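Subject: Predicted fold for Phytanoyl-CoA dioxygenase, 305 residues

User T.R. writes:
Posting the sequence so we have a shared reference for the thread.
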Amino acid sequence: MMIKNARTLDFPLISNGYPIAATQQDTGWLEPTKPAAPLAQLHKRYQEHGYLWLKGILDREAVMAFRSRFFEAFRSTGLLAEESDPVEGLDSGQEVDREQVHRIWMEAVRWPEYEAFCYSPQIVRFYESFLGGDIQLLKRKIIRYTRPGDIHCTPGHYDLIYLRAGTDHVYSSWIPLGDIPVEMGGLVYLEHSDTLGRQMEAEFSKLNASLSYEERISAYNKNMTEGGWVGKDLAALATKIGGRWLLADYEAGDMVVHSPYMIHGSTENRDPLGRMRLSTDIRYQRQSDLSDPRWNNHYYVGDKL
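User M.O. replies:
I've generated the structure tokens; pasting them so everyone works from the same file.
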């Protein structure tokens, strides 16, 4: 099933309790890019927009197989609806064994199947071509699932805040692990915010200049906001630059590549079918570039990154 790109929304977009927009004119839609487009065109589009939404770059069946593998691992925790197909990711709506859920979730980012997925030939080929040489995948990788009705969303931020000890030529890949229409709360991007992110990081660099090295690279130093976020009120961020939040109906097989300065966040999962949103965010850079050593460890809750 192909999901239409632009459409009229008949429900409010909410992020951390704040409406994302006052009117339909305050939002727009991501523009998809063909992965097979000429390299010069891909570079130009990335520089101008701060992102590439690569439609169908990955094998859909492989993505859905990993989705099924992930949710099946949680069968005994109470997370899934009873007797449901794990590939659907149907939420039970019930309390879960949190300790068991946390253990399995942390195991999942260490699975060999997950590592192999992150090194999918399609991803490696794209980045080796796009970056013009050997690449490295940062070890700290995150799988995120969001239950319907969860009011906690990813606030607005740009990734370099958490990667300051390495190169700013680092590329984030956000991959939907299953179809994620807008109703399920996928990532939203602030239009033309790559420029704003660069300006903000330059200002933070001046403010942080007198701090120790450890404090300068921290997203949680005294000059940063709570959690290192740019802001929880996404509508206010859009007003700041006179921009719009760009939405998308993502499909399994898609991958978004975004700049470390591109401001993005997420919205509530309001899927009427009760499906959980599942996605992963992973980061690549040239092998020869300096990497942030803090990202050479597996992700764990509380690692302060």
